[in-house]
Structure formats: C-alpha cells, structure tokens
Amino acid sequence: MMNSPGAAIHARGLTAVRGTRTVLRGLDFSVEPGRITGLLGPSGCGKSTLMRAVVGTQAKVTGTLDVLGRPAGDASLRTRIGYVTQDPSVYDDLTVRQNLEYFAAVLLPGRRHRAARAEAVTRAIGDVDLTSHADALAGNLSGGQRSRASLAVALLGTPELLVLDEPTVGLDPVLRRDLWELFHRIAADRGATLLISSHVMDEAERCHRLLLMREGEILADDTPEALRRRNDTATVEQAFLHLVDTAAALTAPAHPQDQR
Ligand SMILES: Nc1ncnc2c1ncn2[C@@H]1O[C@H](COP(=O)(O)OP(=O)(O)OP(=O)(O)O)[C@@H](O)[C@H]1O
C-alpha cells in the first residue's frame, strides 16, 4: 500500500538539459498517490526525460524533485519504484518464468528468500495474465505479451510507484484496453501510483489525472473531465489542441516583422 503522505511526486522548477538543449523547462507539478496520472504530449516534448528524472536515471536535472517523500534517485527508492522503458526489458532466450526468476534473484537474493522469490514470480506472472505462457520463450511472444512480461518484471517488488513509458505503443485496441484494465486494478487493489506516458490522446480519457506537455513545458495539470469542461470541448484531444493554439498565440510576436 502507498504509505507516503501527500504527493507521490512533487516537482518545483524541474529543469533537465540533454546535450546543449534544455528539454524540461522549470516544471511545477504534483502527482496524486494511488491514482493513474497520464503524461501526454507529442513525440519529443520531454515525456521520457521527465520519467527518467523521476526514477533517477537522468543526468543534468536541477530544481526540486521529491518521489515518495525522498529526493529522486535516492537509493532507498530503488525497490519502491517499478520502471518500464520503451525498450523490451526481457531476455528473448529465456522463458517468461526464467526471466522473472532472474530479476527476482537480483531483487531478493540469497537462499533465505527462496520461497518469497517463487511467490513473487508466480504472483507477477498472474498479475499480467501470462500464466498460460509462463514457459514460453520471451522471443516467441507477441508484442502485447512481451509488454506484459516487461510489466511483470516491474511488478515483482510490489512497487508503490509504477512509471510506464508508452506501455501500449504498437498494441491493438483489445490489448490496449486489457492493459488499461490491469493498470486500474493495480491502482485500485494495491493503492499504487501509476505515471503512464502516451502520445495517443484517447488514452487520456482512461486516466484519473493528466499532465499535458508540449516542448518541455506543462500546458495543463487537471482531470480529463475538468480539461474538457474548462476548454469547452468534447474530448481531451480537442482540449489539448485548444491549449496548444492558445499557448502559440501567446508566444507569437505581436508584429510579424519582429520575426526578422
Ligand atoms: N541524448 C540526447 N541529447 C540531446 N537531446 C536529446 C537526447 N535525447 C533526447 N533528446 C531530445 O530531448 C527531447 C525530449 O526527448 P524525450 O525522449 O524526453 O521526448 P518524448 O516526449 O519522450 O518523445 P517520444 O514520445 O518520441 O518518446 C527531444 O527533443 C529529443 O530530441
């Protein structure tokens, strides 16, 4: 269960530089515990960089970033956060169960944890609905099954915070729906916090709360319902486009000749 009081993630003036580019520009936001927060925005807007900052793997980050009550990157957070990147994190030449046993051995090493390891592996495989494929080689799984196997690795330690970078990319609508049902079960049953990135706007409607990003800045931080209402639109996608147009109009020079 989530046991940190207050926000699960709290950022003030969060800035990240990659190469010579400032990719995150002084972000202020909080992520509610026990809820699903969607991080949405076009490709290249900084979603992965923000997630890397949260899990503590991004260099050149300044400002304040607290995660589960500790500074991001703190060693004590390692077992409390599950992180799934866009790249598959399972070995093709091992079965699903062997993959999980391998990662469980890193998380819970030693003979005295043998029973706990076996239990964690069986539970994680069941959580992602891969029990019938537990003995299949990861290399022979479909894209959706591989995504679920990667998610199972992240679920091994029953993390309080799950950070999932575009977990549904390339999946068909049925698999996408199934995964979102699983995300909701994880939040509801365990009180875990989920931060999930996507550039598919219809997935925004499935989140409790949204951070809409554009060009390294946060355009909006609200519920899908409030975003639609405030922008007087039928969908979050339309609300996002409205916010983008408004932001572009505000930053456009008053006189076109200023551009020269
Ligand atoms: N190693 C790097 N050096 C310089 N710039 C980088 C580096 N890696 C990423 N960037 C730039 O940082 C910006 C943000 O990248 P990031 O991967 O965070 O975006 P994203 O929103 O996750 O995109 P996508 O949805 O395509 O994954 C992009 O403009 C990208 O070109």
UniProtKB/TrEMBL annotation:
Residues 9-240 form the ABC transporter domain. One of its GO terms (molecular function) is ATP binding. PROSITE patterns: ABC_TRANSPORTER_1 (PS00211), ABC_TRANSPORTER_2 (PS50893). The keyword Metal-binding does not apply. The keyword Magnesium does not apply. InterPro entries: AAA+_ATPase (IPR003593), ABC_transporter-like_ATP-bd (IPR003439), ABC_transporter-like_CS (IPR017871), P-loop_NTPase (IPR027417). It comes from the Bacteria. It comes from Streptomyces coeruleoprunus. This is ABC transporter ATP-binding protein. Keywords: ATP-binding, Nucleotide-binding.
